[in-house]
Amino acid sequence: MKIIFAFCLLFVGAYCAAIFDGQLNDSWTLFKRVHKKEYATIEEETARQTIWETNVAKIRKHNLEYDLGLHTYYMKINHFGDLTHEEFKKSMNGFKVNANVDSSKNDRHIFLAPSNVAIPDTIDWRKEGYVTPVKDQGQCGSCWAFSATGSLEGQHFASTKQLVSLSEQQLVDCSTKFGNQGCGGGLMNNAFEYIKQNNGIDTEKSYPYTASDGKCRFKPESVGATDVGYIYIKEQNETDLTLALATIGPIAVAIDASHDSFQFYGGGIYNEPACSSSPDALDHGVLAVGYGNDGGKHPTDYYIVKNSWSEGWGDAGYLKMMRNYQNQCGIATMASYPLV
Ligand SMILES: *[C@@H]1O[C@H](CO)[C@@H](O)[C@H](O)[C@H]1NC(C)=O
Ligand SMILES: *[C@@H]1O[C@H](CO)[C@@H](O)[C@H](O)[C@H]1NC(C)=O
Fold first, then answer.
1. Where are the bilayer-spanning segments (predicted)?
2. Could you read off the pLDDT of 10-23 as tens digits, one per residue?
3. Which DSSP helix (H) or strand (E) runs through 267?
4. Mutate to test the pocket of ligand 1, among 16, 20, 21, 44 (most ligand atoms within 8 A of CB)
5. How far is the centre of ligand 2, averaged over its atoms, from the C-alpha of 232 (Å)?
6. Please, which residues have CB within 8 angstroms of residue 235's CB and are 6 or more apart in sequence?
7. How far is CA 326 from CA 79, 237, 271, 334, in A?
8. Same-domain check for residues 182 and 251
9. Looking at the domain assignment, is residue 76 inside a domain?
10. 294-326: per-residue pLDDT in tens?
11. Which terminus of the chain is more exposed, N or C, with fewer CB under 10 A?
């Protein structure tokens, strides 16, 4: 009796495992089709499928915990699904604090938070016309350029009521003398300083993005916006960051995006306890475009953040990050915006 029972269990187990594999094979085929993935050899495909399966397992586990109320955000597979976390970090981030000397000390001023100003409970600059559609940096560490154009697009709109998409490629190709390293990384503040001294940045349309380092092709007749330096928010001060967001517009921020939870963020309020707020940990430039509170059972303050990994990543290209939560992931460590 005992033996038969054990045999049945084993049989059921093996049968289930086989079905499970088959389902994953179909999903893998779909994943390749949807994301237009092609691999040169069978060996490479096998390796990629193994990485993808590991990622799928990690995401499933997280989402089961999310369903149990243990997380404030869920994860999803996306076009980074066949990359290990190490590969991903190498090609997708690119905010570099240490590699660059701040080239612009003379042109920067601190944000003086207005006192006694009543600010709204929520703000979303997308609804006010300040924000261009989500862009895609591709496999190039140019996040800093997207963060810089995003903030300048907003300030240019504030002063002209024209929303003009601006050229990240120009910043990648032309701002090396200001301490930036193209696809190898850079700083938003160096970009603002370059734009000032260059007397402008071209439109996206006239100087399109290629996701690779190239020769500078700036054309003065195609300038879409300019700035006269930049304002930085007092380091680590979320009160001032919120005030700047409420009264100025989208703010360029740097964050610690080095955790695999970030690679596959899908929606909800991102909360990564392993995040650091130290300047050394900042590795990704993004754009804060608003803030709010989810009004849930445990009301949570958040920032609305625009990323540059296409609409396929996160919540249509955006994420919500914890606000007033000890400067989680360093979002208030190095925030700034250009002066137009
Ligand atoms: C899944 O695909 C692999 C490789 O193509 C194959 O060896 C395996 O038999 C497939 N599994 C199922 C259950 O179809
Ligand atoms: C943030 O800065 C304001 C002044 O702008 C100051 O009153 C406040 O104490 C600071 N908060 C923290 C946490 O440092």
1. none
2. 333 333 333 445 67
3. strand 265-270
4. 21
5. 14
6. 332, 333, 334
7. 31, 9, 12, 14
8. yes
9. no
10. 998 889 999 999 999 999 999 999 999 999 999
11. N
Cβ of 21 closer than 6 Å to ligand 1, yes or no, is: yes
The residues that bridge with 270 in the sheet, in sequence order, are 321
Q: How confident is the model at residue 6 (pLDDT cuts 50, 70, 90)?
A: very low
Which ligand has the nearest atom to the CA of 114?
2
pLDDT in tens, 53-105: 999 999 999 999 999 999 999 999 999 999 999 998 877 777 876 544 555 56
Task: Looking at the structure, tell me whether residues 195 and 250 fall in a common domain.
Answer: yes
**What secondary structure does DSSP assign to 102-147, as a single string?**
-TTGGGEEE--PPTT----S-EEGGGGT--PPP-B--SSS-HHHHH
CA distance 30 to 36: 10
Helix crossing, 2-34 with 42-67: angle to 10°? 110
- Give the pLDDT score at 14: 36
CATH number of the domain encompassing residue 206:
3.90.70.10
User: Do 291 and 253 contact (CB within 8 A), yes or no?
Assistant: no
Q: Which domain holds residue 64?
A: 24-71
Residue 37 and residue 167 in one domain: no
Radius of gyration of the chain, Cα coordinates, nearest whole angstrom? 22
pLDDT digits (tens, 9 = 90+) for 221-265: 999 999 999 999 999 999 999 999 999 999 999 999 999 999 999
Q: Are residues 215 and 260 in the same domain?
A: yes
Q: Are residues 50 and 116 in the same domain?
A: no
In a domain, 320, yes or no: yes
Count of domains observed in the chain: 2
User: Is the minimum distance from the CB of 18 to ligand 1 under 6 angstroms?
Assistant: yes
Residues 54 and 147 placed together within one structural domain of the fold: no
Residues 184 and 316 in one domain: yes
**Are 67 and 104 in a shared domain?**
no
One-letter amino acid of 21: D
In a domain, 14, yes or no: no
81 belongs to a structural domain: no
